[in-house]
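Re: Re: token formats

Sure, here are both.
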Amino acid sequence: MIKDTTFDRISRRNFIAGASAGAVAVPFAGQSFAQSGGSVTVGTWGGDYGRLLRENVDPIMADKAVRVVQDVGDSDTRMAKTIAQRILPRGAVDVQCFDNVKAQALRNADALLPIDPAKLPSWNAIRPEARDPYIVPHIVSAQVIIYDPEQVDEPPTDLDALLNPKYKGKVGAIIANYYAFLMAGALYRGGSLDDYEAGKSYLKDVNANGLRLYAQPEAFTQAFKSKEIAIAVIWQARSIMWQNAGVRIESAWPKSGAMLYVSGLVIPKNAQNKDAAYAYIEAALQPKAQQGFAENMGYMPSIANANLPPNLAKRLELPPDAPKLVSPDLDKLARELPAMSDWWKKNIEYKG
């Protein structure tokens, strides 16, 4: 059964409206967290996301005399490190960037500190439907089909397009998105994000149609530029960012439904500098920082007072004919994630 989400019950067209210009901003109040300076270590994916953190969040921390150090790695590696270090008195990282699925897995492993809203002046600006006791939502997007209009004759209407023999050897995927790709297939073939077997069956069929895998989003983008691939499933924000960069792609909403993506910030329970961690998260929630991610990566802000320029807010809003937006059962998915990762590696990633 598809798990309903509050995103479905609000006006999808107006989801971004509260983030547009005219909303009341909450002034940054991180001074009490970072008066003594020092440093904060942030675990992140690096790439475009890490760059935008440096460009939009680090300057706010620099004003508080706090130096930001990025610990770059893929999600699985950083998650394993966080779990392994949870028994230590002091961990190596103060803030970790994860999607809400990985955050749930860390919560289940008792590796995270519960978020104290009293330490985040911008907590009340976070959209109520996105608040969580262990992860502070940072950016939001939905899963769409992207394609090269010079190689794909007609706009796709659903995920059967990736199985079309015309595009054999032209279907691409980013390895880190394996679980989201599987769940898109589950929604398409089984009618539910929870039907993992249907998702696995779909991925096997896509793989048989010449699926190409890429370790980094930048390599994936280059594959579209070079015409190596023609079609894929990815977050809408990525398609907007690449369009901004001049990549010739279009996006289409799958009629079977679109999974929501939430990326956020968590604090390991043994973080060395918890005050600086809260200051960093507060900085990431500032309208200026949220605007930077919306403008450069196409992600919808997680706060209602991001004050986006009207033209940007218009571009990010969901079309009236967009399909139902659905969220996974996070607890179930987090428990199944290790087995899902093993299956992916054995049957897709490392299968010749």
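Second one below.
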Amino acid sequence: MALAPKIDVKSLDEKLENLYRLYSIKKKKELHDEESNQVINMRAMAAKEAPQEEWQMIIREKLVVKQVFARGGFGSVHKGIYDGQEVAVKVMEWGEDGRTKSEIASLKKDFRQEVSIWHKLDHPNITKYIGATTDIDSASVITEYLPGGTLKAFLIQHRKKKLPLKTVNRLAVDLAKGLSFLHSKNIVHRDVKTENVLLDKDGRVKIADFGVARLEASNLAEMTGYTGTPGYMAPEVLECKPYNRKCDVYSFGICLWEMYCCDMPYPNITFSELTSAVVYKNLRPEIPKQCPSSLAKVMKQCWDGEPKRRPEMEEVVSMLEAINTSNSAPSGCFSFFGSRR
């Protein structure tokens, strides 16, 4: 009777273990490939669903996003490089963490509105738009990088020493020209403030942030709603009444006062007190006695409580350019109580 061959149990176990390991690796790879394909398909579907508008024409491989230099409720702003050029990259996150579907939908709508307006603008006093990208849970707007920072930060730096009248006038003319251009295209910025104005390396003013900008409605009743930043908002906006481009003119008047005084309007006053005083008591920042009457006149006309009495921004440019700045001593602002003139 022949004996059964001797089985090497240890060797068999090792072979089975190796086969199982190979099988596990194969299954993991298949699962990973399947998940990757799902992500690719989702991205493709999202790209297919989104209209291929001009503002989407950007080559992602040429974009390098670097360090953050500003943050806000919308997301963050990074320095970056695009196609060898230094740029600013505004990244808006709309992942579902902590946000409702309606909030996400609103963010996406705001993004599309911002880039649909911004990408058509070409003017020396408007921050240059370069492109935009969209993803499943975020979007980015790429613009020229302006090393001078915000006008607000620049004014704060000169809070004690103040600026020469010639510098104030130059900054004001730049801002007025930018707004005049927007209005000529029937665009209302709706959030004009020194924080949304940037400076290039030569100190030239450039308007930025078109997140709430929109085309001016032919029917005033279609343009209402509480939009902007308290302190810069026109009375009609604070009251949620119909408004037009003249709300930007009002905001410019406040910015002009801020440029002259290098200080914040309405310190130590609550929002509710401010709203009531601006709307019902005609509260405005107090214009210093040493302010040239020609400049004070521009401020007063711009922040007039009646929108129809405010000048067009094209007129404001002419008024500012006519001011004599030859005697350019530093401006000053030593009183911050509200004026009711």
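Residues 39-50, 334-341 have pLDDT under 50 and may be disordered. The CA atoms of residues 294 and 323 lie 6 Å apart.
- S.
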